[in-house]
Specification:
The structure is a single chain. By secondary structure, this protein is an all-alpha fold. It has one domain. 95% of the residues lie in helices and 0% in strands. The protein contains one helix and no strands. It is rod-shaped and about 55 Å long.
């Protein structure tokens, strides 16, 4: 039971990390393209 709970926690952490990374990439991309336009 504890092992399964740990795996779920690990998946949640990885999933959140992926979301954060994708948001950062999007923000950096928008920022660089905005700077490119100016």
């Amino acid at each position: 039971m504890l092992h399964l709970q740990y795996e779920t926690y690990e998946i949640t952490v990885i999933y959140k990390a992926i979301i954060v990374i994708s948001r950062l990439k999007k923000a950096l991309y928008e920022r660089s393209s905005f700077a490119y336009i100016q």
